């Protein structure tokens, strides 16, 4: 997103929805605070791991298998 207000609005919505759901589950007695804390830590770990893998990808030149070009079936017999 290029517009700063749209980026801020998107982040605000994406952060507020899980917090509101967690609060409503606690308020209605559906979960204990430890349940919500464990779910928060689990989500944080998943986001951290996924972000690490996405942001630390290397270019295809570092991958030794990336130089492999598939050969058409009839080309090997020539």
Explain what you see:
The structure is a single chain. This protein has a domain of 26 residues. 60% of the residues lie in helices and 0% in strands. With 78 residues, the protein is mainly α. The protein is elongated.
Largest sheet: none
Sketch the topology as an H/E string, one letter per element.
HH
The share of residues in extended strands comes to: under 5%
> If you average the pLDDT, what whole number results?
84
Number of helices: 2
Features:
mainly alpha, 78 residues, 60% helix, elongated
Short description:
This protein is mainly alpha-helical.
Give a topology summary:
Elements: H1 4-27, H2 33-55
């Amino acid at each position: 997103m290029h517009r700063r207000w749209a980026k801020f609005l998107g982040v605000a919505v994406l952060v507020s929805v899980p917090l509101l759901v967690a609060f409503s589950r606690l308020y209605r007695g559906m979960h204990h605070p430890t349940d919500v804390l464990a779910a928060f830590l689990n989500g944080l770990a998943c986001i951290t791991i996924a972000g690490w893998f996405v942001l630390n990808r290397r270019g295809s030149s570092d991958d030794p298998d990336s130089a492999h070009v598939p050969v058409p079936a009839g080309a090997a017999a020539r």
